[in-house]
């Protein structure tokens, strides 16, 4: 499996890194999880500079793509050259977005007639794009999912694992990253949020 986490300049570390960490808990099954960016380096909203592992051109061949959020997402969706490179196909790819990443999916036309989740800051922009915004942390329809809130990353990651591997593998990944003594509660909450959409 080839999974890309789409990460733009000004990205939110919680979105990209939590998803990256949880998805990489699927071991010994040939999974490759990469940070994909339009430039060789991107700087987070808090000044962390990282090097991309994949280009935007590689997204079209990925099995799954998660679009993270950031403080420059409105600039991204206004950049026709970047948007033209985002060739995503929900008929053959599992696609998720978090917070302002939902705006990217909206602008790509992937949320037409599909309600979505996002964060409180991005909510008016997603509504302005003609998308119904739900008051919940996670929603999916078919191969497209959205999550709202920085700490909803584990919902997206678990959903991708459950869709591409198994529910049991998703539970194992969340169990691994849960705080000691809270494993059962964390796994239960994640499954409660994603199970209706599997």
Key traits:
globular; 198 residues; single chain; alpha/beta; 36% helix; six-stranded mixed beta sheet
Question: How would you characterize this protein structure?
Answer:
With 198 residues, this protein is α/β, with parallel strands linked by helices. The protein contains eight helices and eight strands, in the order E-H-E-E-E-E-H-H-E-H-H-E-E-H-H-H. The strands form two sheets. It has a six-stranded mixed sheet, with helices on both faces. Helix 1 (13-23) runs parallel beside helix 6 (153-164), helix 6 packs antiparallel against helix 7 and helix 7 crosses helix 8. The longest helix is centred in the C-terminal third of the chain and has 12 residues, at 153-164. It is globular and about 45 Å long.
Shape: globular
Provide the gyration radius in Å.
15 Å
Number of helices: 8
What fraction, in percent, of the residue positions are helical? 25-40%
Count the E strands: 8
Determine the structural class based on helices, strands and strand pairing.
alpha/beta
Major beta sheet, specifics? Answer: 6 strands, mixed
Give, in order, the helices and strands: EHEEEEHHEHHEEHHH
Strand order within the widest beta sheet = 2-1-5-6-8-7
Ranges where pLDDT stays below 50 over 5 or more residues in a row are none
For the terminal residues, how far apart are their CA atoms? 18 Å
Which strand-content bin applies to the residues?
Answer: 15-25%
The whole-number mean of residue pLDDT values reads 96
Task: Give me the secondary-structure topology.
Layout: E1 2-6, H1 13-23, E2 32-36, E3 41-43, E4 49-51, E5 64-67, H2 73-78, H3 80-85, E6 94-98, H4 101-107, H5 123-128, E7 138-141, E8 144-147, H6 153-164, H7 167-177, H8 183-194
Parallel strand pairs: 1-2, 1-5, 5-6, 6-8
Antiparallel strand pairs: 3-4, 7-8
Helix pairs in contact: 1-6, 6-7, 6-8, 7-8
């Amino acid at each position: 499996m080839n999974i890309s986490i789409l990460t733009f300049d000004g990205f939110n570390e919680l979105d990209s890194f939590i998803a990256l960490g949880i998805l990489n808990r699927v071991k010994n099954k040939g999974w490759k999880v990469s940070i994909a960016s339009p430039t060789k380096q991107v700087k987070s909203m808090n000044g962390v500079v990282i090097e991309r592992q994949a280009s935007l051109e590689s997204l079209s061949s990925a099995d799954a793509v998660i679009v993270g959020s950031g403080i420059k997402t409105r600039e991204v969706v206004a950049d026709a050259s970047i948007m033209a490179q985002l060739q995503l196909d929900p008929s053959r790819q599992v696609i998720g977005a978090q917070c302002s990443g939902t705006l990217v999916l909206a602008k790509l036309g992937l949320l037409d007639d599909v309600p979505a989740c996002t964060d409180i800051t991005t909510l008016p922009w997603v509504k302005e794009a003609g998308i119904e915004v739900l008051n919940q942390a996670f929603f999916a329809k078919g191969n497209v999912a959205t999550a709202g809130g920085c700490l909803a990353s584990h919902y997206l990651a678990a959903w991708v694992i459950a869709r591409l591997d198994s529910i049991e593998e998703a539970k194992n990944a969340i169990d691994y990253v849960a705080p000691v003594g809270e494993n059962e509660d964390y796994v239960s909450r994640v499954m409660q949020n994603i199970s209706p959409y599997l």
